[in-house]
Structure prediction request, 312 residues.
Amino acid sequence: MTTFKVLLVPAMLLAMVPSVFAQAMPPWSRGENNPAASKGYVFQVGDVDNVPDLHGNPENAALVLFIGGNQFFVLPRLIAGFEKLHPELRGAIFYETLPPGILRRQMANNNTLTLGNLTLRVQPDVFEAGANALAGMERNKIVEKAVRYTSNDLAIMVKASNPKHIRSLRDLARPDVRLSMPNPEWEGVARQIAISLRKAGGDALYRAVYETKARNHSTFVTHVHHRQTPMRILRGDSDAGVTWTSEVRFQQMIGNPIAGVDIPSDQNFTGIYAAGVLRDAPHPAAARAWVAYLTTPQAQAVYKEFGFKPAR
Prediction:
């Protein structure tokens, strides 16, 4: 796998046009759905002081969840439903929705993360990512048991009018198409995208997208794909990016001018999501209740609404 040396785009994104920021960062990413019981004094400058993938108050949290970032838009509904079933946990859940690779690095570094000037240490109870990753963690006795709960297919995200007339994965190799693609170092979805690219056009297509176009800067390699790619497309910095189908659906649900180009089933990849209670979880009972909740009809209905499919 090719290693990419890319600059981390500043989380503040100071040059972002405010109206585009408002579209790309929906209300529940700006703090309105912060699950903390007591928020104290609330101060926020929308395009400066914004930490969209850390949710709640880690101090004295009764349940801590580390969840792959492409589920960020599902979590507010899931948390609300779970708290109705477990009112003793209301306001006491902290969760992160960063890319799985970043979450794993955080766990490997004494559960400590530094984001700008903030350093945070919080020990997770549950880890959620791709089923293969969870299966490996189960084999290595890091989690108790990997539970599969939903799945997702890939799509090509473009602007609503699709001005570049992108119709297939092969079009991503065109010199005039600027791409936003996940970094394999951080994002598990990059491996699935690589499989789809090779199905559609062999190694030549993969190399064109991830090597040739990365070298000439027409492929932008992201660190936080679920945030950066829709923002870049909305701003006009990129023309397309391969994402999960649910991410296209979510952008459309909040009214953003985003469309999806379907990838044929023989070129697509179905990602399966799994969760596991960490063996050193500080709150094992609450963690097991959360993992069990993910497979309930109530939780499954939320996933379906946002374009996810049952686990297969």
In short: The domain at 18-150+272-305 is CATH 3.40.190.10 (D-Maltodextrin-Binding Protein; domain 2). The first strand starts at residue 54 and ends at 55. Confidence is low (pLDDT under 50) at residues 1-28. The chain has two domains: 18-150+272-305, 152-262.
